[in-house]
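An instance as discussed:

___
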Amino acid sequence: MNDARIGLDIGGTFTDIVLEHAGRRVTAKVLTTPGDPATGALAAIDAGLAAAGVGAEAVTQIVHGTTLATNALIERKGARTALITTQGFRDTIEIGTEGRPDQYDTNLDKPPPLVKRRHRFAVRERLNARGEALIALDPADIAALMPALDAAGIESVAIGFIHSYVNSAHERMARDVLHRLRPDLPVTLSSEVSPEFREYERFVTACANAYVQPLMAGYLRRFETALTARGFRCPLLLIVSSGGLASVETAARFPIRLVESGPAGGAIFAAGLARRDELVRVLSFDMGGTTAKICVIDDAKPQTSRAFEIARMYRFKKGSGLPVRIPVIEMVEIGAGGGSIARIDALGRLTVGPDSAGADPGPACYARGGTEPTVTDADVVLGRVDPMHFAGGRMQLDAKAADGAVARALTGALGIATPAAAFGIAETVEENMAQAARIHAIESGATLPGRTLIAFGGAAPLHAARLAEKLDIERVLVPRGAGVGSAVGFLRAPASYEIVRTLYQKLGSFESARVGAELATIAEEVRSFVRIAAAKDAPIETSITAFMRYAGQGHEIAVDLPAPPYAAADAARFKRLFETAYERLYGRTIGDLADVEITAWAIRASAPPVADLAPRGAARGGAAAVTRRSVFDPSAQAFVEMPVHDRASLAAGVAIPGPALITEDETTTFVTASFVARITERGDIELVRRSQS
């Protein structure tokens, strides 16, 4: 029966697989192989096929997501990149907008540009805002840069010229010269990766795409070749940051769209649970080995944006990271995972992350050469993780190595015992995540109390209860498959693609025929991307969003509009839609005091996702046998004997008061003393505050 589908998630530490076949779901988790991620991915696929008892010929689709691009950007492990730009704009990516996340901090740190100044080159050329050439580009000026590019060992090039979003001719000419002289040199055009005005964001996005392109394109091609060699004949699709699916060709060309690939799958997973359980207000919490991701979900829809910040440096505040202009599910992502390294900073404070031990060498307890203490080491010291049954017993941990790493790095410096230092690591990373969630909620115009926290990822269930306590959240849901939640979400994603393009219009002089014709052309381009990834004969729907503002304002709001063709009378209709959205956000409009303008249009095409055919439900029968283990209890500030339950054998309706642990192959849920855990009819773990239980 050839109906198997695979969801594959490569993280910085673990590679997760979910295989659905004949109404059955199997999962596996293996260590990521940083030197060649395809090796770990293939090992995970082999494990999934063996567990399901099927061969490669039975697989009809592989849906792949990864945090490799994100981690490369956060950890600055991408290609040596050059930027070619218009004369006079060499320092745009360093000057930025001159905005500050905190205007009173005189010691403010900002993320350094991805391209060093000595690798930024300016050439004579200039277009005006209408795309007309004021200074024509001389191809010889591009050719003259080759000795400097070669001498610097440049591995990838970004090209960003002023006003190229209106007319890309100069950027395409420069690319043609580079391809003629260096055919194997990857080149990214800002007019293709982010065809919008605001040169700072456009240039940064182009640089980020170029920075990760050699890494991601090389990996994807090697992986696709390896799958073919193993007998797979099914399409390989990639999750993109907006939550849709794209082909390998599209992903290799625009790898920046994979920057929130894995997290997007997690948001889809959480949104599906919210829809299933009719949860109106949700906070999704995805914590893996390298990062933690937090997303606000209302009415079963994750918040979306056309911009995202990478590597925020200043207390997770907006404006302190690198702005990437791509369609994205809006979330906050920080360097807080199981592999996040703990240390004492220059001021004698305990800090955790953002750097991670990853999979190689990994935390000290992995016994693979790691010596620095991590969050996972702290969880081992605190007794939350059983060293003998980690990853379903397939990987044994070294508890002595974890204890030694924490003791060496922290105990003496802090003047406290090793368990207290380990608790400090856990508390610090949990407070980091709580602070990120608070700031994200403020930026999103959301409140956190009253939400359900949906926890998934290998490390999230260990820390979800404490995070909920800090955020004043009364209910936590740890769904089935939580340890591989993002990979499950991949299999629920639609084939979709979105392009945002600047096409300036004032409604007072709306050019309906021109706009309709240009949007129809873009819509066909978007649908062509979707056809590659969608099932044969799948219906494809197109939607239009305009980014609108009153003339003279600096920022826009998103307004959903009907699809073209348009008539002149539609301008009045669009204005009414804008005023409705504007009043909902700001409580008032300004009437006819200013014209309304459209700065950009988002055109999205999508095909429906495959339905979830895997069975749901809890085990049947009485309560399972319980073991006990000494675990550090935050409320008692001491080690206590806690009951340890096997999730697979827990029947629906079983109540487990905290403190307690609930173990499964891919993760462990820590139930703190303030919560009572219950097993739902669907087999999920529901944690409810004692005052609410």
